[in-house]
Amino acid sequence: MEKEAILDAIYARRSIRKFTDEAVSDEQIETLLKAAMAAPSATNAQPWRFVVTRDPERLAAIRKEMPAGKINAPLAILVCADLSIFKRLVTERFWTQDCSAATQNILLAAVGLGLGAVWCGVHPVPLIEKRIEKLLGLPMNVKVLNVIFIGHPAEEKEARTQYDVSKVYKDRYGEPW
User: Fold this and answer.
1) How many CB atoms are closer than 10 A to CB 109?
2) Are 145 and 96 in contact (CB under 8 A)?
3) Can you give the pLDDT at residue 1?
4) 67 cis-preceded (ω within 30 degrees of 0)
5) Mean pLDDT over residues 160-168, rounded?
6) For 50-78, how does the pLDDT look when each residue is reduced to its tens digit (9 = 90+)?
7) 151 contacts 75 by C-beta, under 8 angstroms
8) HSE on the CB side for 38, CA within 13 Å?
9) What is the DSSP track for 72-129?
10) Which domains does the chain have, with CATH numbers?
11) Order of strands across the sheet that contains 142-151
């Protein structure tokens, strides 16, 4: 794999908020989920669980509960974590990082499939968490991190990086790179 192709995909990953009505295929969804589950996780716990919905009524109910998630996409993947799998409390604390890595893989895979996607946070806002968890019928041990709205893009955004050397330090904080 060319390193430049990987970098191109990273730079092309943009938050897409406008979608066509074209459905995302089962094959594309499976590819997105395979990419998600290729993510690293602390102690290889793989706490992620995914709720996938294309149901228009369920999507409308999710949008209603999301202050910043009024996205009219044909698909949503909700990234969750099963906290009951953890044997030690210390490893449970890494669920947000684990599920964030899976989320980023979904976003990058969407680029590779020619799809658009946007990550809308749920955790750590308790009110939104409770509403979404109730809506999905999640058991007490399963927590939701975010909603990823996905579809065929109806907007284009230019690839870019937000590299800023002033945010990089050498050897210790405050020493310019």
Assistant:
1) 22
2) yes
3) 66
4) no
5) 96
6) 999 999 999 999 999 999 889 999 999 99
7) yes
8) 12
9) --SEEEEEEEEGGG-SSHHHHTTHHHHHHHHHHHHHHHHHHTT-EEEEEE-TT-HHHH
10) 23-167 (3.40.109.10)
11) 48-53, 75-82, 142-151, 116-121
